[in-house]
Amino acid sequence: MCRFFVDSDVTIAKIVSSCLYITKLLYKVSKESCHVKTVDLTTGNVQRVIVALALPLVGSSLLQFTYSLVDMFWVGALGSDAVASIGAASFYIMLAQAIQSLIVVGAGIKMSQAVGKRDDELIQRYVRSGRRLNFGLGLLSALLLVSLGPTLIGFLNMNAPTVEHLAYQYLLVSAPMLLFSFFNLLFARLFSAYGNTTTAMRINATGVILNMMLSPLFIYPLGLGVLGAGLATLAANAVMFGFFWHRARALFDWEETVRPVRADYTEIFRLGFPMATQRVLFTVISIFLARMIGSYGTEAIAAQRIGLQIEAIAYMMIGGLNGAIASYTGQNLGARKIDRVHEGYRVTTRIGMLYTGLITLVFLVFPDVLIRLFVDDPTTIDIGASYLRIIGVSLIFASLEMIGNGYFSGLGLPKIPATISIVFTVARIPLAILLEPVLGLDAIWWSIAISSIVKGLVSALYVRLTKKEVTSLAEAI
């Protein structure tokens, strides 16, 4: 792999120069929409509005997915240990981001409803309160990752000192990255509340492309390996933060004297707490399952890491639909357009089920081919293929859960999807333990798939049961 760089005429200086030039070019393109526009989601054809809102979110996810695949290709060339180390560290990065969703979800719900009401003062208050809470939480998360890193990595019980050392190195670089990443996630959600997802997509494109160029440079010519992959992600998130900050100042008019009150912080916590609890618990359960997976060797950890990256093919669309229905529902609820709220859920569900159905077919027919794109190790390929087959069965139901999640968030009822997720996600551990004597490692994959199926069905049922409550919710806003 290194020979590619040595034999080519491309020098490190030229690569760096190209990175800076392309990043600058992308920034100029995104500058065309310096003053971000508010998009009205309460009028027009429902399907067109949903698709128009979701596509930039899907585009952002597609860019991130493309980067993840390319990055996995570069890291995969280093061997299964390198893949496993990043996979181990990623659990704790996801845990920090799950905690941060306390701010992102709460501020996003209140913002979308305030936009629907056309209340500019309320919008400014939630922007400021969300920004302050976000900074404090980001700083605390970074400090905890640095100080507790060895203990956290050791908990996974990998019994591989080299992998554990590489994982901690990756965590050290990821700690400052979180400060930038937290704000990037928050601003993207607030832009979405305005119905403007295009700006976030452009900024994400800038960061992803920069990351894709820096990763091979840092990993191979500079010889930094896993640490280089982390540094590339840190640099990309720092650049994205600068662009988001500039755009946010134009949209939110921070020079105004409107200040948040204590009730604003309370509302953000109240609405964000259920979803944050759900996501934190989901990640904690994943960490416990990873501990079980670790007992099967680093090949099993690497296989799941690769499987998760490929699985993201499905979630890039579902995630876009989740964000779209949340903002759409929030604005239409604020405008008291109840029929549009119900129609939006139906349209979004149809799109999600059709897409995930196609992905399921691919996972069932070509799992080995997909895993083999990243690693040559036969054991890792066999484990990863089994993972994709089993998880593929649950994807349609996962789309029902995530779309329902966005729908209830837009209604200001995050406790419903949070409760559903908490109850059935916790069930994964006893289910995996129960099935493991019979199915071995596949028991863990089946525990994930079965719980996802149940969560999707229960979420769809609750949408029907709470349909009559939407009118009273609109009147209470």
From TrEMBL:
It comes from the Bacteria. It is found in: Cell membrane. Its main location: membrane. Keywords: Antiport, Cell membrane, Ion transport, Membrane, Transmembrane, Transmembrane helix, Transport. InterPro entries: MATE_fam, MATE_MdtK, MdtK-like. The chain crosses the membrane at residues 49-70, 82-109, 133-156, 168-191, 203-220, 226-245, 280-297, 312-330, 351-375, 387-408, 444-463. It is a multi-pass membrane protein. The keyword Repressor does not apply. Multidrug efflux pump. Belongs to the multi antimicrobial extrusion (MATE) (TC 2.A.66.1) family. This is Probable multidrug resistance protein NorM.
